[in-house]
Amino acid sequence: MNPIKRGVLALCMLASGSAFAAEITIDTAKPGAVINKDVYGQFAEHLGTGIYEGIWVGPKSKIPNTKGWRNDVVGALKDIQVPLVRWPGGCFADEYHWRDGIGPREKRPVKVNTNWGGVDESNAVGTHEFFDLVDLLGADAYVNGNLGTGSAQEMSEWVEYMTSDSKSTLANLRRKNGHDKPFKVAYFAVGNEAWGCGGNMSPQYYSNLYKQVETFLRAPKQYRPKIIASGGNDNDVVWSEVLSKELKKQTDGISFHYYTIPTGKWEVKGASTAFQENEWISTLSNTLRMEDHIQKNSAAMDKHDPEKKLGLFVDEWGTWYDVEKGTNPGFLFQQNTLRDAVVAALNFNIFHAHAERVRMTNIAQMVNVLQAMILTDKDKMLLTPTYYAYQMYVPFQGATSLPISLKDNQDYSAAGFKVPEISASAARAKDGKVYLALVNTNPNKSADVAVNIPGQVVKSVKGRVLTAAAMDAHNTFAAPQTIKPAAFSATAGADGKLTVKVPAKAVIVVAVE
Ligand code: AHR
């Protein structure tokens, strides 16, 4: 078959099933909250090949690198304008002792990564290396402190080491190790998942420990990080409730974790590829629970913080599947398909709607772990559909959210699940343009979405679309270009109305003019 015929056939397949019509109205006259750029934050834990091999190869590696960080991976991450990186964990953070990761690398102690596969932890990546990475990315740093096996003294000294501009012994040690000026720490968290791997605590007990620790986190005013309390997960709002009451005066925000699992069961989560429509829709239905979780946690916080001074920081989220066959189960390595890009976009639209309270999120995780942006195999790397979702949504970083209303949206139903067919969000970006994101959750049917802006004639939309013929379309090292965004545009018809035909199972981001 010649390539043109093949292209036409592919388009027909994408548009299979009859389209339905909906209408979106963007209210540019009532701008909402600014979408903090940190909503597009990333998470890099000492877990599997998330750091070692995935991004860090060491300065002596044959893989081209800068100060030990892979040039190819760093370059790709720069393209999605990563605003923030959370490090060193996760569960790893509560067993991490920062002094193990400073000074000459060959003299650093080797530890066991007890959480993730029981492998050796060389401590080659420590505080200075992490700040090299965020510098290379042009990102901010989110450092997670160790409450589980650490102490107030250890966290206090780490903050002093990183941020002090005095002549103290610790500040001078940082200078001796190669960094004269204080590091800029944007956020510092006191522990991680204190309800589980971080120490199996109650929220009340954690609050008392937090108060003690926070008292001693001293930093010069201009270098003082925002301090984060480690909160709850899933549908448990008790942590947000207790922490916003107890810690209101001593915290900048409360973290929250929610992972999307196709089956909803940790024992058998579901496969990352070769799934059927029942697990396409169950995954989307489960991920949309984020909306309810945010609403309930925010409402719990409203009781003690109606002014919304505290942020709800979703500092771990994303899909979690069964690991790929033949890989170390402790490394959480999974493939990433069009379904993951749709999951990412659905969550972005939810975060935008809650921009007032949700001021930072970190997808788990940046490279080779869970819902990753990038997968690597020795010197090869590939960009995942999730990477492209982040790339397409870049204009939303720091944009001002705009209220939208959706008329005649339908439900897509299958296998006993029901989700709205279209998900959308809009914002006025820093370049002054209005951007619209549209997701069609239905894998079988396209949707015609009329776009209105009261008081404005919408002439055209221009941007990119991410879709494919298969629900599990993904990139491999042998075929790394299987799925990537394509140009997308539409213009108003003779009647002056503009309709966007959103293909089945697709993500679209366009500038509206
Ligand atoms: O992201 C993987 C793990 O999931 C993190 O270490 C932990 O915080 C969560 O349970």
From TrEMBL:
Gene3D superfamilies found in the cross-reference section: Glycosidases (3.20.20.80), Golgi alpha-mannosidase II (2.60.40.1180)
Annotated Alpha-L-arabinofuranosidase C-terminal domain residues: 315-506
Stated name of the protein: non-reducing end alpha-L-arabinofuranosidase
This protein's UniProt keywords: Carbohydrate metabolism, Glycosidase, Hydrolase, Signal
InterPro entries referenced in this protein's UniProt entry, alphabetically: Alpha-L-AF_C, ASD1_cat, GH, Glyco_hydro_b
Family per similarity comment: Belongs to the glycosyl hydrolase 51 family.
Reaction(s) this enzyme catalyzes, per UniProt: Hydrolysis of terminal non-reducing alpha-L-arabinofuranoside residues in alpha-L-arabinosides
Assembly information from the UniProt record: Homohexamer; trimer of dimers.
EC id: 3.2.1.55
Organism: Duganella lactea
EC primary class: hydrolase
